[in-house]
Amino acid sequence: MREIKTPADLVLVSGRDSVVEWAAQGFGAGVRAWTGGDAVAVASPDVSKHDRLAVIGSVDDAAPLVRDVLREVGPSYRPFGDEELVRGLAERVPGLRFSASFGWMDASEVPDLTTTAAWLDGDDGVEELLTEASPKSYAWPGHPGVRRWAALTGDRGELLSIAADAWSAPEVGFLAGVATHPAARGKGLSRQVCGFVTAELVKRHGRVALMVDGDNQAAIAVYRRLGYTYRRVAAAGMR
Predict the structure, then answer these.
(1) Buried b (16+ CB within 10 A) or exposed e, 10-25
(2) Domains by residue range for the chain, with CATH
């Protein structure tokens, strides 16, 4: 396998794959990448809650690459990529077990919508809303990589719906931490706040992505209306 040292080299071997470029995080602290045959693997520590190993390519080339990379970086890294590929890796890489499938969605156009959502000056009230409305969120105030929060607020300034700019890479912004107060659901507020964050991140990074549970059809429909396309991905982990 050959180690990739720069973002420009990564683009050459990955074809600007959004999963790979997001995982690379601009080759920030601790990020490393390799290629072998038509496969590419990017090891990114502590991004969106996990040490992630983003992988693309054919399973024939990816399996030996992932095996060797895991020996290099350690078993905490979770291979992550298209579901068919990850299932193949789980069959071929000793000790690797398929974990779960979910959705990766990305967009490169500014949504056409009107919204009063805006960036918050801080994160007052965000943790309380997440605790009530989305306790399994990966993005929380103060966590590494979680940069800023956007919100729609009520007449008294209370937070009604929120979303975060979290773990964004130079080439791919990332939307996370979406939550709407239970009393404010069904009014299209999440579409507005997600549309605002999507527009801001597309303007800044050129593309934006997110992860979503594959069975959350309501959320997927909202993101599709904002211009996102869906890609079925999965993760695996060492036993």
Answers:
(1) bbebbeebbbbbbbbb
(2) 2-101 (no CATH), 118-206 (3.40.630.30)
